[in-house]
Amino acid sequence: MTIIVKKTTQILVGIIVLFGAYIITHGHLTPGGGFAGGTIIAGAFILLILAYGDDVMHLRATKEDSSQLENIALFMFLLFGSLGMFMIPSVFFKNYLPLGTVGELLSAGVIPLFNFFVGIEVAAALFTIFLAFVILKEEDK
Amino acid sequence: MEYIISVLLILMIAGSIYTLHASDLLSAIVSYGIVGFGLVIIFLFLKAPDLAIVQIVVEIITLIIMIAVIRNSSKEDLQEGATIKLEGVRYVNLHQLIYISGATLLGIGLVYYFILSTAGLDAFGVHEMRMSQVYVEQGAELTGSANLVTGILFDFRGYDTLGEATILISAVVGILTILRIKGRK
Which of A65, A118, B16, B129 is most open to solvent, judged by the fewest CB atoms within 10 Å of its CB? Predict the structure, then answer.
């Protein structure tokens, strides 16, 4: 790519990742949530690879890392969901943490944790799909 | 608002029809993007910003992935499909007659059961909200979440979210498996 694309990407990628993190952490207050923020973060990484080419990260390691990360994130999501079965009204996906006041950042019990792990899972999954479609073909040539 | 949405819908239909008749695969994909981005604007008019955010980012990523796949695929694949000619059937086959009559009977039966099953529903336009009324009224108190959509998705409907995440993981595993087999050939 040209230097204009590279410089613009260099400035924008951090802001895009920050925006995705904002969408994820404020998922219980403003529109958005784990799915939206995860796709935005995956988009930032895809932009980085499109602008700088394949050798910006050590790609062979990154694919396995992102695949492992999404498995771990889904497992943590399941774990936090099943922790509700040990509480007194034992229900799967029970909201067992204190709810707090509506509208503050630290409120809504386990919903921010679920948002966080679903965001990691979605970002890793979309990034892995992109790597599989774009990189695996070029490795074989 | 209905006029704007119907204009957008007509635009989306025109884009998808052009996709079928485009001479180039790349222009077909770009015109197919009209459907996704029109849907984003429709979501914004219908006051669904959660869906609009997800839709616009997923649409961009999907377009990028499809364009990358088309750039990687060779030209021979593209021209191979263009030379296939379909030959018309000249006479009536007995097997085909049996298949067509069977499909027609199945369709009539399905329509009959559809009419039977929808007889007990409410009249058209009358909407009785038993469950969602509770969600709308007490959702903020029960979940502590100011955004009602997230409160429903991650608290009341936690199973749904778990299923969506599992579907995403199985899609990734399937894609990695298929591409790996092709790579090692």
Answer: B129
